[in-house]
Design a protein that fits this description.
Helix content: 10-25%
Radius of gyration: 30 Å
Shape: globular
CATH class of the largest domain: Mainly Alpha
CATH topology of the largest domain: Glycosyltransferase
Largest sheet: 11 strands, mixed
Number of strands: 44
Number of domains: 5
Enzyme class: hydrolase
Distance between the termini: 58 Å
EC number: 3.2.1.40
Number of helices: 15
Protein name: alpha-L-rhamnosidase
InterPro entries: 6-hairpin_glycosidase_sf (IPR008928), 6hp_glycosidase-like_sf (IPR012341), Alpha_rhamnosid (IPR016007), Bac_rhamnosid6H (IPR035396), Bac_rhamnosid_C (IPR035398), Bac_rhamnosid_N (IPR013737), Ig-like_fold (IPR013783), Rhamnosid_concanavalin (IPR008902)
Strand content: 25-35%
GO molecular function: alpha-L-rhamnosidase activity
Length: 917
């Protein structure tokens, strides 16, 4: 009996263990596998890419203890026994981000399938779903074809007005074997659309991403296996101008132009019998510029004549006898590299809120929202009828389009009907920034579907949400989202509507940090840092615009500081040390360049270009009709920024292993702080006692002790008394305004500034009809030359304040990438609740706090494999409950201390509900 009882107990215990193990496997899973921050990359120019993943679990306190990665050449071999590229074995580490591949040496075009499992303190996961990446064309000689194009104007082109027709190219060939796989690699400059057997490949638009084509050129890769079969095949490519054939060429000393559109392409076909074939661009291709796209200019619009359409031009059997033999052309100077960022896409369709007839076939369409993209039309008429579409951000007082602020950009699309029934059209190679459209030449009665706005931006996920008890804050957040998305165009541009649309560094110096809470933009900004480095001159100079489509090298500090500050942002938000290593040499070189050229004997950086760009006039009326394009250089700003960059480099030098540099930077920091205070500190204030002059020394830690107290008093006095509760900062000061007010304990002033509806404020923009963010605080009164209604530079650090101060979601500065989260919402009278979320590299962080008369409740979620320092507003920790239970130190919640009226706890992953009565 005893023996049987023992066996029975063993059976029960074993059964319970198995059940528990199954539960653990079910509760812990691995998801969102990424290779080099890309979800499904088709071409990576890296034989040792870094792998990341997220752990999902409903359990609390889940921390990774180890991982195992399998990589194989096929899904069938993706087992521990057969993984032929890499079986990492069990790697004991908690790191789930940026783990480098360490398997067999990979070859160009090699496809790799991978999966991962993790061990945690709560159990072991099952294997993840399978993901894959493909190595790109690693070498210049891997490109077998030659560049083709037509390096000349045709009689119908208008060289003076930069009206250049699109180029069409086609190639027919025959496939006699069964296809195993087919991959296309394409560089179509300036922009392209790619077709196989009549079908457009991919849903990308305005591809590839723009670069300085003298420095680097991006190629795209496509799996076209399913688009091909045995028999006759046809490849078709349309080339648009983009930034390659520049929109304006009247000032070659300022504007770069690169030549006529051109194409390099090859298709690698693998057959089931083990053989392969490459189809490449050569003189066997046929081409023409005499097609329906008569002109395409990013500033001026697209002209399309449907009467000239080639029916079936990208399909086999098309009669191309009238087409020309493709010509070999000079290849671009830049090096070839795989595009690392996601392409632009039509991300949303927007329907009109009103369509107003204006007589004689003219209609005014209001989409209710300022955005960037274009309009798709559905029309019917007779052959030769012409539809013209003009675009604008706002209306004149007489109800007509206001276009003066577009400068000389014509922003007009033209469609000429072929008269063959219902015709649906949208442009291919232009975009506009607009809320309103005027359509002329339209016959019949339009419907809602006749005019559809197509919102275009880079295909990146929205990562942040924000709601609060204050409706104005919520609307500013919404406007910000629309403005940021509108200006993502393969690079961060300043505006999408006028004859500019340039990637100004100064617009994103700090703004990129705030944007990172709203969008999954790490890869996007990593690419932009590449653009900046490519634009750096041999002597170290960094431009004001990058890619350097405009030759602006003004040698200020606050614009090129973007290279350093965006690098710092990416490291803090993603924990990517590689971004530090890539940019450290360029930053160091530029700092040395600026010191050698512009530091005087007193240790002051004397050179600045823009000052506190676009400071608000004293009143909106004072700025009526005044051109805001005014520069007021400030040695205080250039020196303060230089000092701040030196302090950042003291950290970068340690993190990148440049320890010898660390001592130098520390010494420079000490010398410059002394020089700055001697030069700019007056009797209790800095410089000219402007708000920005005083904010920067506080934000950067230059003002200390009693001096700091005096400057704080000046800042408060300026805002409360001189400005009557308003800001008076331009681009530079606004980058540090909200966080500095928080640091000095005046969140009440920050909240006042954020919720003002009178001039100057974000609320003032909304009160005057803005649906995005204006370029100027007085955008409704300034001279129209410079008053874009869809800009982001005046957001400054507002969105950072939304998340880090209002929602209480920020990354620790030591355990970056949200490995440790700082959850410290600020208490502000007049704000009763905030509900926000953020998709961090480890998973979703949530913060929903609410205060009532006698209680404070806070629901938070911390993703697996991370932890948080949670600051709960209470003087006595005994008053804090979690899930209606008093908190006793446990494995998941640990009391640290009470400080500044807040009980501080270390909290491991999971969802919690804290209450304080």
């Amino acid at each position: 009996m005893k023996k049987n009882l023992f066996n029975y107990k063993t059976f029960v215990l074993t059964l319970l263990w198995l059940i528990t193990a199954d539960v653990c496997l079910a509760q812990i899973s691995v998801q969102k596998l990424r290779c080099e921050s890309l979800e499904n990359p088709l071409a990576i120019d890296n034989t040792q890419p870094r792998l990341s993943w997220q752990i999902s679990s409903q359990q609390r306190g889940v921390m990774q203890t180890a991982w195992q990665v399998l990589v194989a050449s096929s899904p069938e071999k993706l087992t521990e026994k057969d993984a032929d590229l890499w079986n990492s074995g069990k790697v004991n580490t908690s790191e789930s981000l940026h783990n480098p591949y360490a398997g067999k040496t990979l070859k160009a075009r090699e496809k790799c399938f991978w999966k991962v499992k993790v061990w945690t303190n709560k159990g072991e996961s099952a294997w993840s779903e399978t993901a894959n990446w493909t190595v790109g064309l690693l070498y210049y000689k891997a490109w077998n074809g030659r560049w083709i194009g037509f390096d000349r104007h045709f009689p119908w082109d208008n060289e003076e007005e930069q009206k250049l027709s699109a180029r069409y190219f086609r190639k027919e060939f025959e496939v006699k074997k069964q296809i195993k796989s087919a991959t296309a690699y394409i560089m179509g400059l300036g922009l392209y659309e790619f077709y196989v057997n009549g079908q457009k490949i991919g849903n990308q638009v305005l591809a590839p991403a723009p670069t300085d084509y003298q420095e680097n050129i991006q190629y795209n890769a496509f799996d076209i296996t399913s688009n091909m079969n045995q028999g006759k095949q046809t490849i078709g490519v349309i080339l648009g101008n983009g930034r390659y054939y520049a929109m304006r060429q009247a000032k070659p000393y300022k504007v770069k132009t690169f030549g006529f559109p051109k194409l390099l392409m090859q298709i690698h076909v693998q057959y089931t019998d083990g053989t392969s074939e490459t189809i490449k661009t050569d003189e066997s291709w046929k081409g023409t510029a005499n097609g329906p796209i008569l002109a395409n200019n990013e500033y001026d619009g697209e002209i399309y004549d449907a009467r000239k359409e080639f029916i079936g031009w990208a399909q086999a059997g098309f009669n191309d006898k009238e087409w020309l033999k493709a010509e070999y052309v000079q290849e671009p100077e830049g090096k070839f590299e795989a595009q690392k960022i996601a392409p632009m896409k039509v991300m949303q369709d927007i329907y009109p809120v009103s369509i107003t007839p204006k007589g004689n076939g003219r209609y005014l369409i209001d989409f209710g929202q300022n955005f960037s993209g274009w309009m798709k039309i559905s029309v019917q008429g007779t052959i030769g009828d012409t539809i013209k579409m003009r675009f604008a951000e706002s209306l004149q007082s007489n109800g007509e389009l206001f276009t003066t602020n577009l400068r000389d950009a014509k922003v007009t699309d033209t469609y000429i009907l072929n008269g063959k029934g219902k015709e649906v059209w949208e442009p291919k190679f232009v975009y506009h920034g607009f809320r309103y459209a005027e359509v002329s030449g339209f016959k019949g009665q339009p419907s809602k579907e006749s005019f559809v706005g197509r919102f275009v931006y880079d295909d990146m996920a929205t990562t942040g949400t924000f709601q609060s008890s204050n409706a104005l804050l919520n609307q500013i957040f919404k406007n910000s989202w629309w403005g940021i998305a509108s200006n993502y165009k393969g690079m961060p541009i300043d505006c999408p509507q006028r004859n500019e649309r340039q990637p100004w560094l100064g617009d994103r110096t700090v703004g990129a940090y705030g944007e990172s809470f709203l969008f999954d933009n790490a890869t996007f900004y990593t690419k932009w840092l590449d653009d900046i480095r490519y634009a750096q001159k041999e002597d170290g100079a960094i431009p004001d615009v990058a890619p350097a489509f405009w030759r602006y090298y003004s040698d200020n500090v606050s614009w090129p500081a973007t290279l350093t500050l965006v690098t710092e942002m990416l490291y803090r938000q993603t924990a990517d040390v590689k971004v530090l290593e890539q940019n450290y040499p360029a930053i160091k070189k530029w700092l040395s360049y600026m010191k050698d050229r512009y530091m005087n004997d007193k240790g002051i950086i004397t050179k600045d270009s823009y000052g506190d760009w676009c400071e608000p006039p004293l009143t909106a009326e004072d700025g009526r009709g005044v051109n805001a394009d005014q520069k007021h250089p400030s040695a205080l700003i250039s020196t303060a920024y230089y000092y701040h960059l030196l302090t950042i480099m003291t950290k970068f030098s340690v993190l990148t292993g440049n320890t010898q540099d660390s001592l130098y930077f520390r010494q420079e920091v000490a010398k410059m702080k002394k020089a700055f205070n001697q030069e700019f500190y007056k009797n209790g204030y800095y410089g000219a006692n402007k708000l920005t002059d005083n904010l920067l020394p506080l934000a950067f830690g230059i003002a200390e002790g009693e001096q700091r107290k005096q400057v704080i008093a000046q800042v408060v006095d300026i805002i409360e008394n001189k400005n009557k509760g308003h800001l008076s900062t331009g681009v530079v000061g606004t980058q540090w305004l909200m966080r500095t007010l928080t640091q000095i304990g005046r969140n009440d002033l920050a909240f006042k500034i954020a919720t003002n509806t009178t001039y100057p404020s974000w609320g003032y923009m909304l009160e005057n009809g803005a649906t995005t963010i204006w370029e100027l605080w007085n955008g409704n009164t300034a001279a129209p030359k410079m008053n874009s209604q869809n800009h982001v530079m005046m957001l400054g650090d507002l969105l950072i304040w939304y998340y880090e101060s209002l929602a209480g979601i920020s990354s620790d500065t030591q355990q970056t990438g949200f490995k440790k989260i700082i959850m410290k919402p600020e208490e502000i009278n007049g704000l009763n609740w905030v509900n926000a979320s953020y998709q961090s590299p480890y998973g979703e962080v949530k913060s929903y706090w609410k205060k009532e008369k006698s209680s404070f409740s806070w629901q938070i979620t911390i993703p697996a494999n991370s932890s948080a320092l949670v600051y709960i507003p209470v003087k006595d920790k005994q008053e804090v409950k979690e899930g209606n239970q008093k908190i006793n130190d446990s494995s998941n919640i640990k009391y640290i201390k009470t400080e500044g009226g807040k009980a501080i706890y270390e909290v491991l992953s999971g969802s919690y509900h804290f209450k304080v009565n």
